[in-house]
Amino acid sequence: MHELGVTFYVVKDVKKVAQENKVDKIDYVKLEIGEVSGVIHDQLIDCWNWARKKEAVTEHAKMYIETLEAITYCEDCHGQYRTIDYGKTCPYCHSENTYLLRGNEFNIKEIGIYEDS
């Protein structure tokens, strides 16, 4: 389960950004995760809900996940297609001379600051 290790990196990075910006509390963290990244969202959120409590700055922070669609490019016909639907084989020319354009990302997209009302 690499979700726990990934979560520790997210907490570390969020804590660093908070310190650099003199922020005491984070309200939420929004991630962009590619649909073929291998990260299991439910497990990641479970790990987050445990790990966030270890740091005061992230103690009450929520996690939101945006899934990025996986797209593959064919070098033979220059077509693009959904990786999940067709895998490595191009649906247009049936070539396997393809590569993943996007869908393997794992990014911290946004960090929301908690503001006292």
Automatic annotation (TrEMBL):
The keyword Zinc applies. Pfam families: HypA. GO terms for molecular function: nickel cation binding; zinc ion binding. The keyword Zinc applies. InterPro entries: HypA/HybF. One of its GO terms (biological process) is protein maturation. Keywords: Metal-binding, Nickel, Zinc. It comes from the Bacteria. PANTHER family: HYDROGENASE MATURATION FACTOR HYPA. This is Hydrogenase nickel incorporation protein HypA. It comes from Faecalibacillus intestinalis.
